[in-house]
Amino acid sequence: MSGDRDDAFEDASAGRLFDARLVRRLVPFARPHRRPLLAAIAALFGLFAAELAAPYLVRLAVDGPISRGDSRGFLSVAGIFAGVVLLAAALRTAEGIAMNRAGQGIVRDLRVSLFAHLQRLHVGFYDRTSVGRLVTRVTSDVENLAEIFTSGVAMVLYDATKVLGAAVVLVWIEPRLAALAIALTPLLLGVSLWFRKRARFSHREVRRTIGRLNAYLQEAIGGIRVIQMFGRERKVQRRFGGLLQDYLRANLLAAFHFALFLPLIDQAVSLIWGTSFLAGGNAVLDGRLTIGAFLQFWLTLEVFAGPIREIGEKWNVLQAAMASAERIVRILDTEPAVLPPARPRRPERLAGAIELRGVTFSYDGERPVLRGVSFAVRPGETVAIVGATGAGKSTVLSLLLRLYDPQEGAVLVDGIDVREWEPTDLRSRIGLVLQDVFLFAGTVRENLALGRPSATEDRLRAAVGAVGAEEFLARRPGGLDAAVAERGVTFSSGERQLLAFARALAGDPGIVVLDEATANVDTETERRIQQGIRELLRGRTSLVVAHRLSTIREASRILVFHHGAIRESGTHEELLATGGIYARLYRLQFGLAP
Amino acid sequence: MRRFRRCLRAFARHKGELIAGAGCLVVASALDVGIPLLVARGLNRLEAAVRAAEPLAVSRDFLFFTVGAIVLGTALKGIFRYGQRYLLIGVSRKVEADLKRDLFAHLTSLSPRFFAASRTGDLLSRATGDLEAVRLFLGPGSMYAASTLLLVPAALAAMVHFHPLLTALVLLPLGALAFSMKAIMPTLNRRSESVQAALAEISERAQENFSGVRVVKGLAREEWETRRFASSSDVYRRHQLSLGTARALNHTLLYASKDVAFLLILLIGGLGLLRGSFPVGGIYLFLDYVNRLFWPLIALGWMAGMYHRAAAGMDRVEEIFATRPEVEDPREPAAVDSIRGGVEFRDLTFAYDGEPALKGIRLRAEPGQVIGIAGRIGSGKTTLVSLLGRLFPVPDGTVFLDGTDLNRIPLRRLRESIGFVPQDSFLFSETIRENLAFGFDDLPTAEAVARAAEAAGLGPDLAALPQGLDTLLGERGVTLSGGQRQRVAIGRALLQDPRILVLDDALSAVDTETEAGILERLRRGSRGRTVFLVAQRLSAVEFADRIVVLDAGRIVEEGTHAELLLKEGWYARTWRRQRVEGELESLR
Ligand SMILES: Nc1ncnc2c1ncn2[C@@H]1O[C@H](COP(=O)(O)OP(=O)(O)OP(=O)(O)O)[C@@H](O)[C@H]1O
Ligand SMILES: Nc1ncnc2c1ncn2[C@@H]1O[C@H](COP(=O)(O)OP(=O)(O)OP(=O)(O)O)[C@@H](O)[C@H]1O
Ligand SMILES: [Mg+2]
Ligand SMILES: [Mg+2]
């Protein structure tokens, strides 16, 4: 279902551990947070010193005061030890707080930038991408990505230093023993890396399957009425069950790897450890090593092996972070197909002239939906667009709003190419009712105003009055503050359309674009609206798409679309007289003899 | 634990794996306690040897055997740990899947009223995040808890055996830790809840924005939306920072208590060593056991947090389960063999909430009749036809199919006999073919699909699409034009060849010519089929056997087209407006 299209990419992306290009691309997001990041790294190095110091102090105590029976000397070593422990505790707290600050700062900035970028992408991008996936990008992917800078830094800098530092100390204690232990680490590394490879695969499977599962769940919730009306509950349950089975299988595989990994690692560690115990013990027996030095060696070995043991897991975290980063960067690098101009023109006033010049447009770049469409609308004029379904009427309106750019030709508003307008400037002057009404969860008032300064309380009330929405709003508790469910499902379709209509009027538009705005509205209400808005829209340009010809009574000119081209154009009388498509539609609709 | 009853029942279904897993856990834990004892013995011998009380060769042999035993013991432990993890975590995954399946099945049985009162994002997070929290607690969480419960007494016994006083002393910081964890937990829980809530808000914001992208762009609300999103992100960050501080302090506390315990061991042990009253192996043993005890203790702390999340999550999930489906299969279903399609509404009154949306509806449709339904917006047309499929609960004794109370007909049987074209044509993001065949479990024959598509007037559109019927649609079908979507929905209903066909304003986005074609084919293909036709354009219902006009939930006019025209009511008025104006204009 909805996930399928993105899966290919998801599979391809989980490849690299470290991609310098990606990181370079993302560094600007980390830069503002470098202070806490550096502070955290500094604290980590302090911690590292403390970790190496502790075993050394043990050795000092055992070989010095303890072997001499000197309690005072022992107590002073113990005092230093306590100091080191306290210092470590303080450093650990500082590190935790600083790293969190840096990470959350990066998450916040990235998240907002990503969202802002998504707002700039054109509608065509959204046609192809599932909403669920985009939500994942701005939620968990962003958080994963931040791991590059937090865990990633910790791993690469801290762990590497730790291993190297510990190795140096080991060599310093007893080179031969150290050589033996270090010679055995490839074993540990091997296990860890083997696991990483397996785990990466199962991790990817888990991600892929859960993505599909959730997308299906979301879609099923959206289509619940259809599912129930068709009595298809079992069918979707089976489908869901199948996806769930895939998900379970992926998870069991992951559990298998996970369950296998830890014992294997333990085994490798115990081999290294046992060998050093044996060799070290012999060295002690031979008198080549003191008991204290042996203990230090042993404790330091733990410092040395710890990061290697965890390298597989951290590797995976980092790799998941890289995969998230790649998905995010891919969005960030998607150039908006509809770009704001370098030097936008911002006319003071909108006169309201619209012109299409030889516009050819295709959604997929193959099948043309509009072919060489040209027409002009004078300021203040009302022009209707009619034509068969799928003829391209809604597409014309999308181009006027610059939701898409045409492949050929130009769309002009007030003689200026819409590509030279500041897009938000242009759109905020156009009042729009889309064919598919979309209402946000919240209140009616929020939906009508949508935070626009032009939507004052007075205009809001005027708009509600003009479309005749007062009546049904009055029946709801709260009136204008009545609750709106997701997509407005607790309103009837006609009521939703009226609300969308009022929303368009509330913004004080200079041009009004209506796409089947009253298709679900009865004739009487429609008449009332036409009267109600006449005053509000006096002198403003309107472009009206409708199948119901009574809707376009007020139009001074009618454009008839057919297969993406204008086939007829003229006044009602002219078109009737020509006896073309319009005349046929008209007669059919009004039941007149053809 | 009562709230987890549903999960426990699911666990019980995997009894065998649970028992085997638990067995592995016991053995592995025993080895966990045993291995350090071996090491301690080895160290003691080593020390004794250094103090030159034993011949070198004997010590070497002993050393060798000790190490061998340790490596072997670890291997053995590994095998059992593996068994424990794989079995127990696997079971928790299976239980999670069982719960998810049940939850989804339950969701599909709930009425649209429930979904109107919920938010999609919230439902999704219950089905994913909350169930995951439950799993973490019941699976890995209780597994660690169990091994802790085994480990603690055994390790303590060994420690007491070696040095009772030191054991008591070491327990002090660990006890203090447990105590302070208890104090800090509520704060941690509260803050992590705030974080969760803030994240939920972010994802709901994002989801609505992306779903409504055309409105957001069309009305130039991008900047405003970004601002709102940024402020949600700021809130989230604030909560995360305060949670992070609490976590860091908590962490420090954990480590500090461990370090204090270590310090005590080294101090007391060192002094004992100094006086020759306590062996090196003993120190090692204490260090190792405290380390081993420490992690499970932390895990117990996590468990407390996990429990909190899991309990809250389970409550939220149970809330859904506790919502009874408003519409259920009849307890004593009536015997229905073949449905003929006679429908009767007897004094039906129905309310969503508050004021009734339908009041005293009486209406009869003989099998094969076409019933037109007209009326103003919000007058109850959609409500009326939705009740026919029992989308909302229908009061007993108000709606009848072939003389049988709707509430006594098996739900699936009822719904399969109705072909429904909803007012907003929801399509799935599948191919057009799969959408058309939605009413079927298996894909019907290609001819049947093509015939339905043709009857719905999709022919020319499909011909223009390079992939035809196999064109993949965007979510909700956004990549089709409004009228194309509506016609796919019509085809979807027709393909079922239903006894009763409901068209809820299903031609509103279709041009007159296409509409006329579809209606014509409907009339020809629907002989013997009962049709409910809701329409704003009265020419579409003109041919109906009977037309009812709704107003504010009541039938205010009823009759044939000709009868209604004589009544001089809403119908006649609207008809004249739609028709006569047309004629007048054409004469103008
Ligand atoms: N987002 C999209 N992606 C790809 N193709 C699209 C998209 N939207 C529309 N189309 C296709 O473009 C053509 C014209 O669609 P458009 O929505 O402009 O038609 P319309 O004239 O408004 O039809 P209707 O009266 O049914 O609303 C149709 O064939 C449709 O399938
Ligand atoms: N899910 C719901 N919850 C609460 N009220 C609802 C719900 N659905 C509809 N209503 C209300 O019930 C009344 C009847 O709605 P219904 O959808 O049946 O009208 P309709 O006649 O189909 O209108 P339209 O022509 O606009 O589609 C309206 O006032 C509407 O606001
Ligand atoms: Mg359209
Ligand atoms: Mg309706």
What does this structure look like?
The complex is a heterodimer of chains A (594) and B (588). Helix content of chain A is 65%, strand content 11%. In chain A, β4 and β5 (416-417) form a beta hairpin. The radius of gyration of chain A is 35 Å and the shape is elongated. Chain A has helices at residues 4-13, 20-30, 34-68, 71-120, 123-128, 131-149, 151-173, 175-222, 224-229, 233-286, 291-332, 393-400, 423-428, 444-449, 457-467, 470-474, 493-506, 523-536, 572-578, 581-589; strands spanning 354-362, 368-377, 382-387, 408-413, 416-417, 430-433, 442-443, 483-484, 511-515, 541-545, 557-562, 565-570. Chain A starts with a helix and ends in a 5-residue tail after the last helix. With 588 residues, chain B is of the alpha/beta class. Chain B has two domains: 2-322, ABC transporter type 1, transmembrane domain (ABC transporter transmembrane region fold), CATH 1.20.1560.10; 343-587, Rossmann fold (3-Layer(aba) Sandwich). Chain B has helices at residues 5-12, 15-50, 56-109, 112-117, 120-162, 164-211, 213-218, 222-275, 280-322, 381-388, 411-416, 432-436, 446-455, 459-464, 482-495, 512-525, 561-567, 570-587, and strands spanning 343-350, 358-365, 370-375, 399-401, 404-405, 418-421, 500-504, 530-534, 546-551, 554-559. In chain B, β9 (546-551) and β10 form a beta hairpin. Residues 584-588 of chain B have low confidence and may be disordered. At the A-B interface, α3, α4, α5, α6 and α8 of A face α2, α3, α4, α5 and α6 of B.
Distance linking N and C termini of chain B: 80 Å
Mean pLDDT of chain B: 86
Number of helices of chain A: 20
> What number of structural domains do the residues of chain A give?
2
* Gross geometry of chain A: elongated
Decide which structural class fits the backbone of chain B: alpha/beta
Q: How many angstroms does the end-to-end distance of chain A come to?
A: 46 Å
